[in-house]
Amino acid sequence: MATNSPGSGRRTPLLALALDRDSSLTLQQQLCDQLRQVILTGRLAPGARLASSRALAAELGCSRNTVVTAFDQLLSEGYLEGHAGSGTFVCRVLPEELLGAMPVSVEAPLPPGSNKPPRLATRGRSIAGSHWHDRRHGDGRAFVPGMPDTAEFPFDIWGRLHARVWRRPAASLLRLGHPAGYQPLREAIADYVNTYRGLHCRWQQVIVTTGAQAAINLVTQMLLEPGDPVWIEEPGYVGLRGPLVAAGAELVPVPLDDEGMSVSRGRNLAPQARAVVVTPSHHYPLGTTLSLARRLELLEWARQADAWILEDDYDSEYRYAGRPLASLQGLAADRGEAGRVLYVGTFSKVLFPSIRLGYLVAPEPLVAPLTSGQAALGALPSALVQPVLAAFIEEGYFATHVRRMRRLYALRQAALVAAADKHLGDILTVAPDHAGLHLMAWLKPEVAKRLGDKAAARVAGEAGISVTPLADYFFGKPARQGLLLGYAAVPEDEINRQAARLGEALRRRLP
After folding, report:
1. Do 318 and 453 fall into the same domain?
2. Mean of the pLDDT values across residues 27-32?
3. Are both 291 and 312 inside the same structural domain?
4. In which band, very low, low, confident or very high, does the pLDDT at 111 lie, cut at 50, 70 and 90?
5. What is the reported pTM?
6. Which CATH number covers residue 359?
7. What is the domain range of residue 291?
8. Bridge partners, 343 (sequence order)
9. Closest Cα partner for 323 from 443, 448, 197, 493?
10. Which residues have CB under 8 Å from 325's CB, separation 6+?
11. Does residue 226 fall inside a structural domain?
12. Segment 398-417 mean pLDDT
């Protein structure tokens, strides 16, 4: 490669550039790649002047236009810079230097106290101490509770809908949408809950969220004052405690019996509670259904106490026997008290956990402030998924998927009951449930005394099986000892094999 004449700037070193006319790459791209490489390796130093395009073209035996085009590309990428009347030079600051932060010396000693644990607020310690992240994120092992079978999801249909929406997206989808969510999805959700869950709502009352916990967080942040008492189920879903603690609520665990949450006990513990969070259709984790008498009693208490009812309907789609009671929201609407109930639903249990979409059905007077609150808190759901999900529901794929999975999960639940009876009958008592994605496995009294559910869960983990101890769902001292066994994501033959493995592991550790 020719060098520039003396006195006209730094001399360009001789470079071994060669163009291969049999290559699949164009001559321009080959020259571009080679020049970029010699710049990055330092053979062309920052500030070095390149030979003229005419001279370089003559040396390489290519057209001058090829060299000019290669120079233009490297100019646009920031590797070269041109000076009018002076020529083309290597940039003194290369693009790679702008992408990385300046390295900091690691030789300096750490300041005193830098290895101390971070100082968290009281609420922060309470939230972080739950370690709920560890429980929720299954790694594919049996028997993670609450985990749907994602392998059975119709991703081919979902992919076609996604391509249809986003191949040529409407301009409205590329702008910030309404903070309450994509209108066609809100309409589809309203049609669904009114038809299948007995709600009475208009689509304008639906607020799309990033999940059930996000919906609870939005409600508690907007409706509760720090220190407000809130009834929670005892035992109950641990994931709901974080939003309540973050809002500064005083958690009041209310025990359950065969009819669900005991309203009379709640009245005794905190008669003027500001709200209650309840799973009336299928209690998590025990599976109890809140009786009609208790529902009416709860609505009456809420009216007297001027309290809110947060109804978490997390898995109503998966019911295998009998017809479910209508939602609390629908019952309240029939009695003219719909303004007290906020209904929360999620798609994570039905579709796949990472979809991170749920919804809140709010009383009409709360829609505007809750929508403003969601915008202010910055917890807006992704606009990428909402139009796809709307089409998935509107075109009937959602209902078809639910029906198919309901049949599949019913078979898997029966397989787990049979496998538990065969391999775990001397350790656990497992009975079928009318709904849900997991079964309660009660430790036999003698096993509970000798091992306990937390120790049993640790033994299972050592054997490569993921079960959750019931003790984790109690706010206070556990009243019973049991394990949650999720079956939805485990094939039937695997259920039998893993149940046998669990039985062997537990028997080895029984004293």
Report:
1. no
2. 92
3. yes
4. low
5. 0.79
6. 3.40.640.10
7. 125-133+154-397
8. 311, 361
9. 197
10. 280, 281, 289, 290, 292, 295
11. yes
12. 96
